[in-house]
Amino acid sequence: xxxxxxxxxxxxxxxxxxxxxxxxxxxxxxxxxxxxxxxxxxxxxxxxxxxxxxxxxxxxxxxxxxxxxxxxxxxxxxxxxxxxxxxxxxxxxxxxxxxxxxxxxxxxxxxxxxxxxxxxxxxxxxxxxxxxxxxxxxxxxxxxxxxxxxxxxxxxxxxxxxxxxxxxxxxxxxxxxxxxxxxxxxxxxxxxxxxxxxxxxxxxxxxxxxxxxxxxxxxxxxxxxxxxxxxxxxxxxxxxxxxxxxxxxxxxxxxxxxxxxxxxxxxxxxxxxxxxxxxxxxxxxxxxxxxxxxxxxxxxxxxxxxx
Length: 307
Known about the structure:
2 domains; six-stranded mixed sheet; 13 strands; 31% helix; globular; carboxypeptidase; hydrolase; EC 3.4.17.13; protease
């Protein structure tokens, strides 16, 4: 049984079009004893966004001045909108308030932009993992997702094991970073993309064809980013339909090209991203990755853990 936690909702991105799912998530979490704050963010709306830019920015910046910090800051959903806020985030205040505190900021998808900006500007390690509506509010709650979420937030050392079809073998150590690939690429050339040396880059995406994924990886290569990585770990790439025109060009073709052209190991098949089952990963944590005979393992340390 998980100890009751204080959870503060933020909605820096799109309007939560599935209000029933969000309310279902709140009901579930409250039934477990958790306190849910800032629920007004769920129904807030301006155009396609979860409120005006200022309202959504306030969700983030108010974290710098709270008299009592929550245990968890949880994104309501992704979509689009976080990029519009990055210029005006109170990075100094957030660093002063949150750095080295046991506070877990969690979300994925569009939330990746804010997570990487915080990592760059403040050194804050945040968690790429489930969100309120899409995960905790799913009609069928994934025990896999929930258990990995609490494990990541409460364990000083987190180990993940999975079966990978990757032909690579080896062991690498570095800094874990990444998230949604489209959002990573959107930050190239901006002050918000961390310059990670010896990185272990984890990527996922939704509604992106293999050729678009390859194009984004080429962009990372041509920007000099892939040359600084030790390895790439691929999560889920969902909601894509291949056609006869592709003639065998699929995601595995993309991963193999990265291995061949850029001499980077690509460890595939991690349950991470927009699928129902997703692990929770601390972006910015010290990480070891190893794979042998298709058995892959992650181990993370140095991330904030709840008391």
